[in-house]
Amino acid sequence: MARKKALQSVKGNIQNLHSLPVHYGLFSAVLSFLPGLFFILLWIFFSNQIIDNLTFATLGGEIQNFSDFDRALYLNDVRNLVDGDAISRPLTPVLTNAAAYYAHTQVYIFWIFSLLAITASSLSAFLSLRKITPQLRSRNMLDQLIVISLFSCSTLAVLITVGIVSSLIFETLRFLEHVPITDFLFSLKWSPQTAIRADQVGSSGAFGAIPLFTGTLLITFIALFFAVPIGLLSAIYMTEFASRRARIIFKPLLELLAGIPTVVYGFFAALVVAPVIRSTGNAFGLEIASESALAAGIVMGVMIIPLISSLSDDVISAVPQSLRDASYGVGATKTETIIHIIIPSALPGIVSAFLLAASRAIGETMIVVMAAGMAANLTANPFQAVTTVTVQIVALLTGDQEFDSAKTLSAFALGLALFTITLFLNFIAIKLVRKYQEQYD
Amino acid sequence: MTDMSPNSESDAAHDLAPYQRTAKEIQARLKKRYRKEKIFKAVGLGGLISGLLALAVMVVSIFSTGLSGFQDSKIRLDVFLDPAIIGTAEDATEKGYIDYIHTVNQSALIRNSLMAKFPDVKGRKNVMNLQRLVSSGARDQVMQWLIDHKDTIGQTVSMNLTTSSTIDMYLKGQISGDIRPSMRKISDKQIAWLDQLAQEGRILKGFNWTFFTSGDSREPELAGIWGATAGSFLTLLVTLIIAFPIGVASALYLEEFAPRNRWTDIIEININNLAAVPSIIFGLLGLAIFLNIFNMPRSAPLVGGLTLALMTLPTIIISSRAAIRAVPPSIRDAAIAMGASRIQTQFHHVLPLSMPGIMTGTIIGMAQALGETAPLLMIGMVAFIVDVPKGFLDAATALPVQIFLWADSPERGFMEKTSAAIIVLLMFLVLMNGLAIWMRQKFEKRW
Lengths: 441, 447
Description:
The complex is a heterodimer of chains A (about 450) and B (about 450).
Chain A: H1 2-11, H2 21-58, H3 61-64, H4 68-83, H5 93-131, H6 138-178, H7 181-186, E1 190-191, E2 206-207, H8 210-241, H9 244-259, H10 262-283, H11 293-318, H12 321-329, H13 334-363, H14 366-371, H15 389-397, H16 406-440
Chain B: H1 23-66, E1 71-80, H2 83-86, H3 94-103, H4 106-117, H5 124-131, H6 138-148, E2 156-162, H7 165-171, H8 188-199, E3 203-207, H9 209-213, H10 226-257, H11 262-274, H12 279-293, H13 301-325, H14 329-337, H15 342-371, H16 374-378, H17 399-408, H18 413-443
Antiparallel strand pairs in B: 1-2, 1-3
Helix pairs in contact in B: 1-18, 4-6, 10-13, 10-15, 10-17, 12-13, 13-15, 14-15, 15-18, 17-18
């Protein structure tokens, strides 16, 4: 890079250059780097596949007839042998040969690609060097390249969404090949244990998601039941009654709740809240499950208090002072002003806070995984154990299982449902806030 | 509701015109209204206090169960390194010696020493109970000693052996000796032995270094968070390397270069929506894309880091945009007037000036990623892993996942370990958020 720069400076008096020497250097560096990068990426993504196929092609007759699954297992053993790990079948000469070939090809492919990368880079470096003249507008071109790369970075956000939606929809479609959509959406029984062998008993596999949705709704409702009054009241108190100093102390303290990891809430729910609720219930002669929806709901409520209070705080503070002054002017007390003036005018914002909190509670995972149950009960009784969509996703996807079974795929269908619901709630919430903001601007 | 004059609330029975009311009635109404005011204020304060109370109860309960997790108890025992049991290594080389020591029956050394301490213990069952005083990790302690101090074979050395979890719980007072012997894991005889040891001053309580230096274990007394902390660190490093440059670049583009068109709108709406997508969905994405399409290794910090990077990206973009927007246009105008190109303006002036704000947002995003558990469960970072991960492709867990795993363990000894691990995690979070606040205050500039 420095050499290229020097080369340029020699060619012309520095004042004759269109851009700073650095720009010429960077420009050709970037140009020579890109083709190399392209080949390296190719190598990263495809080398394993190429090697696998090559190795497989050299193997003897009977192995060629393997199914895809056995083939993958066999290649896995070859790979393990290369790495010196344990393998799952007796060591045959065929296997050793394959491993030797594999290791050999690995090195070989690596060299081919690095050679390709280096050649491409030097070629393009050479071309770019030849192109460099004092008239070349390298600064502008470099700028253009940078803007393009910035643009592609920002496009990534869209790609993530596309990735989420497409992977969820793709897997859900595969799930729906096994289970009809009406069963999934309307059936009342959830027991995803499918039989691995045809002769197994007791595992029919029922994929009715209704109990999961009702369980999620029950816990969300309990959470909001506790969080909305507490969050809203604290927001009102902090904006309207508290002194400046009290506000400076209390607001961050309440927001500390938002910074606590959810796994901590889950532990708290299972360790402290659930036993307390259980023993209180027993004292009143109530039968309360140790994984009751109530415990999970209350703790989840604590978790979303700061969300509701800070969002409501924002909208209440945004109510123009003139409205308050007008109300005081006609003789209303503070309380009357709050109830009759401030809350009605902040209502859209408060409702959107409520919706965002609901969406957060529906998508929350760790609290319910640790404190709610696994059994899919269809009940509205907060003292019983219910399960939620997120609990089931975690239960279905942790541990070892094959990727193609209806059981595993159903997790993606649940994920899609979850994504759609939360997206819908967020969308309405954002719309509401926008509409509200326009009123006073 | 709209008419706010106090008179509007006059009761129906009172058919006099408002201005004809007596001062007394007005006084009474005023009193009532003020009382309502007081009640409402108290209810508001009550809401705030109950929120703070929940925080306090949570912190107190976790600290009260967790602090004892930082302590461990050891028994000082005179171990006779019996040459008859140890024997001699055939291979005289250093490596041969170490390999040989691994085969030595260290349990027998410990058992004999314990029996020498309590000579009147007879019977197989009693000896077993006696042996259960010390942890299974005591064998490793003896082994390490033999490797380090080859010359002490044949001598009696005083060693501080880790107690087993049940004994540790008893010594910390978490298992009471008062309940019926059949209901507790510790027998009356064990309690008597411990009392004798305590009287001789052979029971030592100290800071639990094991907790900070070892990986996970099935035995609570040997389990530590170092493996999980290293896993978290590697994961966050990947997250930072991916999310920070991409996040800042997108923010820069959206704030400074993006034309006002449909595509830009789509990007902006997308980023706002991504910020509110449940984290478990990102886990599903990681599972479907990184593991199933790209065949990356399960449980690796690399995959965890990539997944968390996608999750923290919106946070970083949003806060970086705010920081870039805060740089006044006069700076840009000045740079452009001096002949700088737009890129030069951005990289030489706007970015350095907005860096404190960007860093603050990034640290907060990293703190979020550090506490995140659900996506990591999806990509298999939830396995039982004893080794400390050394690279980005090794199997690893993260600190919050470790907490989740321990919280699920039935052994009583894991409860205080879980709380202790939570305390460590919270300390990290406090540290990171404190750093963010400090940076904001130190570098905040009012234009």
